[in-house]
Amino acid sequence: MYIYKAAVVGGGAMGAEIAQTITFSGIPVVVKDVDQARVDQALEHMRKIYQRRVDRGKMSREDMDQKLALVTGTTTYEPFGDVDLVIEAVPEQLELKRRIFKELDAATPGHAILASNTSSLSISALGAATTRPHKVVGVHFFYPAHVMKLIEIIPGLDTSDETAGDVTAFAESLRKLPIRVNECAGFLVNRMLMPYLNEAACCVQEGAALPKPIDEAAVAFGFPMGPFMLVDNLGFDVCRDVVQVLLDSYGPRMEPAAIWERLYAKGRYGTKSGAGFYLYGERAGQPDAELEAVVQDLRPRTQPKGEFSVNRIVLPMINEAIRCLEERVCTAAEVDLAVVAGLGYPPSKGGILHYADELGLDMVLKELERFTHQLGPRFWPAPLLKRKVAAGHLGKKAKRGFFDYP
Predict the structure, then answer these.
(1) 129: which of 98, 100, 251, 304 fits an S-S bond (Cβ 3.0–4.6 Å)?
(2) Contact 92, 242 (CB under 8 A)
(3) Is residue 140 flagged as an active site residue?
(4) For position 294, which CATH number holds?
(5) What pLDDT is attached to residue 304?
(6) Whole-model pTM above 0.85?
């Protein structure tokens, strides 16, 4: 099915950027929010994205005006009577999303696809709120949506192959890189990302290292920004919602470090609140007594202590990726594509499973076992990793690991 007209519900930063991406491909889009002020804010956000392109000489003002003319702002569902696709982009609250999907089911034509930009919640549960669960699918953009290439396509239990195929083709028409991810809590990228972010937080609260040197080490490893800068940009509140979903599904290995809740309780949500793991605005670069006090209070309670290393924060990500392979959430190639296109890892390095193959799967297993003994069962190696090592699939040195090396 070709998408002639789309709609976005939720005019926050993510919703506005999704809408801008759609208009950039020449497709009309309706943007809905609960009041006109928020709709206007979304439209202004879109205009600023286009204005930056004009300022850089990447498009003319006339082209910008034509793209913006494709947008309709609304506070009601009245313009939804002829849309082919709706993308919901409201806060990560399951009951709120289920209510919106029920409303969309009544407001849109029967052929319309109802998609959610959720980063972790059940697509099957959203489909169950409608009379067309075969037309409900996850279409997860990454922030900033107008820049990042990756889109996760997540079919629910009742999503039809036709629906999944239609939204995949739509994503490609937006010049994005879609990967199909079988439904699980956190999907693929966030499921891999949270153990990495959490272990970095554990290192800080244990006193193994401070945020800045950890971030510098992660950038030297290949990520465009370190875990703490990433969390501050994503927002503590957003990450907290995802962590709760992962904890509920996967249990103790996703137990968040205590420092998350301490900083959240102090209103340190990241860049948007002026403070997270770093200070921003007028306080940027100043001594952070509040963070230091939190860390000092937590250190006596966070035994055992371990040293910081890049592998300590990267191997949990690799271990979770291997679990995704075990559960057939995706393929090894899709894991590495997701890390490159969704997290900004350099394409020249191949991805984290290529890194594991380069390091040697026997060394990955040995390090995970050492961390398990030293720091706890959150590092417990995935069974597939043990099987690969036992079979002699040790990575590049054996010509076979997660990939083959002729």
Answers:
(1) 98
(2) yes
(3) yes
(4) 1.10.1040.50
(5) 56
(6) yes
